[in-house]
Amino acid sequence: MLFPFLMLALLHLLSVNSVYAEDGITSEDSKTLARFISNRLQDNFEQQTKFRRLKEEYNGLDYSFRKWDIATLLSDLADEVQNKFLRVRKCLIHLRTRVQQQYQLEYQTTTARIVNRTNNIDTREMLYSNKHRQNVSFTESSFSTPADVSLNGSKVEKDIFWTSNLKKSFMENREEEPELIIWQYFCTENGVLRLYPAISDDLEGKGTVEYDCRFQPWYIEGDGCPRDIIIAFDLSGSMIGWPLEMAQNTASQILKLMSDNDFVGFIGISRDPVYITDGDNKPVKLLSRATERTKNTMNSFIRNIEPSEEANFDKAINAAFDMFDESEKIRKSAMCQKVIVIFSDGTIQNCQETLMKRN
Question: What's the mean pLDDT in 169-181?
Answer without folding.
Answer: 88
